[in-house]
Amino acid sequence: MEGQRGLLTSYIRAKWYIYASGISFSIAANLFQAYYPKVLGNFTDQLQLGGLTKDAVLHYSLILIWVGVAYGVLGGIGQFHIMYVGRKFEWFTRRRLFGHFTKLGEQYYSKNGVGKLLSYVMNDVTTVRESIAMGVNQTANATMLIISVIVMMILSNIPVYQILVCISPLIFIPWVVVRIGPSIRKRSLEVQESLGAMTESAEEQFGGIRVTKKFAVEDIMNERFGRTVDRIKDNQLKLVRISSYFQALIPFLGALSLIIALAFGGYLALAGAITLGNFVALTLYVRMMVNPLQAIGNVINTIQRSRASVQRLNDLLAKRPEIEEEPSAVEADWSREVLAVNDLSFTYPDSPEEALQHISLRLEPGKTLGIVGKTGSGKTTLIKLLLRVYNPPAGSITIGDKDVRSLTLENLRGGIGYVPQDGFLFSSTIRDNIAFYKRSAELSLVEKAAKHAKIHDSIMSFPDGFETKLGERGVTLSGGQRQRTALARGMMMDAPILILDDSVSAVDAVTETAIIKTIRKQRRNKTTIIIAHRISALKHADEIIVLDKGRIVQRGTHHSLLQQDGIYAMLHAIQEEGSGVG
Amino acid sequence: MAKAIDIRQTDSGADLAAHSNNRPNKAAYKGLYQFAKPHRKTFLAMFGCIIVAIAADLLQPYLVKVAIDDHLMAGDRSAKTLFIIAGIYLLLSVLGFVFSYLQNNLMQLAGQSIVASIRKKLFRHITRQSMSYFDRVPSGSLITHVSSDTESLNQFFTSVLLSVLRDGLTLLFIIALMFQLDVQMTLYCLVLLPIIALNAFAFRSYMRRTYQMARTNLSRLVAFVAENLAGMRIIQVFHQEREQQTQFDEKNQLYFRSNMREIRTNVLFNRSFEMLGNLSVAFVTWLGGNAVLGESIPFGVLFAFITYIRQFFQPINNISQQWNTLQSATVSLNRIWNIFDTVPEVQDAEKVRNVDVSAVKGKIDFDGVKFGYNDGIPVIHKLDLHVQPGEMIGIVGTTGAGKSSLISLLCRFYEVQEGHVRIDGTDVRELPQETLHRLIGLVQQEPYLYSGSIIDNVRLFDETITREQVIEACKLVGADTLIGRMKDGYDTRLSERGSGLSAGERQLISFARIIVFKPKILILDEATANLDSHSEQLIQEALNVVSKGRTTLVIAHRLSTIMGADRIIVMRNGAIIEEGNHRELLRRGGYYEELYKHSQGSNPQLAAGAVGGRASKKSCGVG
């Protein structure tokens, strides 16, 4: 429990003084506010007694102004402090979460989608912020106001039993809020969900519009979409049934209280048990209490919700990163040492089957290794282990005499350049994307990398050249352009080892040939690992291994492999001879 | 994701500033009125409810005034009248309770029905657009129109309209009641009204700007985090955690600062509003106190005034709050009506020629076709191509050669600028689009999956196609064993994301679609580009089944896909430069041979060997 409270308590402990000052200001403001019906009550009494003069009227008006100004200013300062604390919490927590995200590994990301993680950053943090800012603020305000109102009433010689009778319907307000609040929330979540479902449906329909139109099934799709629309309507109406009941009920309870005050207070005033001024003050006090009581109910609901959020955030922050640098991490000289894979077998954490079995490799500096195999044969797994995206078993991957797990992350990541298949790029400028490894790099270096990846001409055709922004607010690159930009990013690093993970699959044959040629030239004395479906991309490698079901089934050079009967020769035949149509 | 994050919270506000409403809104609002018209009765009933509810609410302070002036102050000692007053009070509050409940429900009923019908019509209208529209307009913005823009229309009904009616009427009622109580006092109080309103609206417009800034910064923050989460592996592999954290900090700080600005404005506004309220009470007390002193009004009137003047503020505040919503609703409304105004570029001819789909043979003729996209640069010049029924044509050429444009013209996604595209001698412009689309089956590079069972994905939710037909189709294309291995067989649910199918397997589903929809002409547009060699083979086998008895056009980057075609055309810069079967083209030693060499990895010796090996295989294949 202690650990779970961590995030919130440590924050509040650090910022308690702002809290304290904010709450004090609010309390002071409420004390003034509570004084206000009392002034009007006194005014009434004096008026009734006939002791009112022009000066007295002025006097009372001035007091009212003072009360108003003091309440406004003090309350404002208090409110500002407390909202500041809330936003600062948001700032602080999001920052921490982002830092934590950068440490979590592939294993975590494969299980948790972006949507879910974003909802931590957005929804959970916001919920907690609301409860600690608004919640604390309103509880403090409401409690203070109620207490001071009751004290004021007692001080005004209004009998306690009368106060209790009058406010008895009000007691139900927090109860009603707590009872109905959650089901309002549940139904409004349902509305949100059905809205989400409609958006998703629209997303799906517009994404597949070509298929829909091509098969002329527009009517059927319209109907499918219409169903999601109708569901929103139903859910909205379900929500309003309860929420409008709630909205009408609270003022109704307030009115009941007033009726009692009117009948009972009026009766007592008639009987002379209380003064007319007290009667006036009483009705005003009752009105004053409706809002804070409702607020308390709301706060209870917010806090309940935020408890779950705090728990989720704490759980997330408690997740240990899978890949951590050892305290005694060392550095290796990547450009001189031999990269070796020693009888590597690997199973993914949640999978019953081994993804790789007994893989052994030696890669001398300056050599090129080619890897071929079907989808699911283990190529990408091998790369992930080399990159230490997943932790390889101890001693299974070494550079020189050092286990890759014993290296500093900086040394490891600096040693290997990587070009992924999907060509993931960020929505910044093309220059920043290519110079991702070192964003301060000179433009000439960026240009050189772009030329090597055969993307330079495409980039120059954009109006802003290398400063062109990518992504939603910028240009969209085609699959082949993305791959080539990602290739430039990998080449730019000029790392001792470069891994190309099927990096030219979306590039046409002519360009592919040119790219492979440049890579061979540029990386003459450096190590390169090429994974490809197309044999044409890796036939020049010093060694080619063929993976199938997690094992190396063939190895050798292009020519020696062609001599053997096996997957490689078969692949070659399929790709070069087009046996498919035949 | 739509569920997890309130999209409206982050998005819609951000681009509000960009689209200020400089277009005439009148037409859009008129259009909206057409949608609202069928619900006149509901609106009328709601209006009645509002009046009763407000009256019941506002008469309450008046009752207290009666109690004070006529009884307590007047020294009426009978408790009976007091209880009668209390009884009336109770009645009023019950009325208020019931009618405000009804009014809210009626409003939602009308609003929701209108928004639902707009949504459906909008969606229908968008799907009616021609393909060029979808090439031009990103689907993201269409989604925004259908979901967020209509949602802000919903806001218009449920909050703007409701507030204007309810709060506006409340204000009027209060003023009327005040006049009823004392004319002079009311006139004095009305001096306050413009001050309050001015304060409210001035602050609101200032607040809107700070609010928008905060939203823009928030949506940037969200976008940044989303992207970084998606690309976390790249960040880690390039060891850029620190740099990205710095960038995040900048955005976080920016958002924090705009939040603080928002808070400052907010607090300032709320407080000044509140103080204004208290000042007004002081003002009324002073004014009324003197009046009571001068015996010109009874004390109860003063009491009622004080209560009313406090109630004055709420509706004004509410209405001013609606200002923002009204503006964003207007922007959304304009955007929606802009779409309604978009006429599909490709339309059915006035006199369409109805053809019997089952009797179509599948002969295709491109006669002197010329075509270019909007920018005026011609993509296809004077192209002639004649395809016999049942023939298989392979089309190759580099990106931009005009291969896909050719297909688009055949499907009439775009219109030719000159010449004719004919199917069985009928110009495609004379055919109803629906018939044309049913005639031609298109398999694309990225097969699209809908969220639904495999059965529904194959028959595209068309219930007139039976389950048995679907299963038979899957067997034909060789997807049956694969589907049999899946958890729920043919009822396994698929979706665009995470279907658990490989690219090749997804492509098989789209082949099964072709079988059940029975088009006469089949087009494969780079259908094998993303597949590994093994899956490609699977697809090739399916293609053999599907292309049987159909005129088939195959576009491919990889020559292996089209080597076996009856005829291969090579395109370059919008024209056919070479034509013939694989062997003829190789013999010719032109551009095709060059392409072929590249795909072989420029090893001429090997290539030559391969040609020899294939010839025999081919002859028994396509046949």
From TrEMBL, chain A:
Molecular function GO terms recorded: ABC-type oligopeptide transporter activity; ATP binding; ATP hydrolysis activity
CDD domains attached to this UniProt entry: ABC_6TM_TmrB_like
Domain ABC transporter: start-end pairs: 339-574
Pfam family, one: ABC_tran
Keywords: ATP-binding, Cell membrane, Membrane, Nucleotide-binding, Transmembrane, Transmembrane helix, Transport
Gene3D superfamilies per the UniProt record, alphabetical: ABC transporter type 1, transmembrane domain, P-loop containing nucleotide triphosphate hydrolases
Annotated transmembrane regions: 16-36, 56-86, 139-155, 161-178, 242-261
The protein's name in its UniProt record: ABC transporter ATP-binding protein
SMART domains (alphabetical): AAA (SM00382)
Signal peptide: none
Primary localization class, coarse: membrane
Membrane association type: Multi-pass membrane protein
Annotated ABC transmembrane type-1 domain residues: 22-305
Organism: Paenibacillus montanisoli
Location within or outside the cell: Cell membrane
Lineage: Bacteria, Bacillati, Bacillota, Bacilli, Bacillales
GO cellular component, one term: plasma membrane
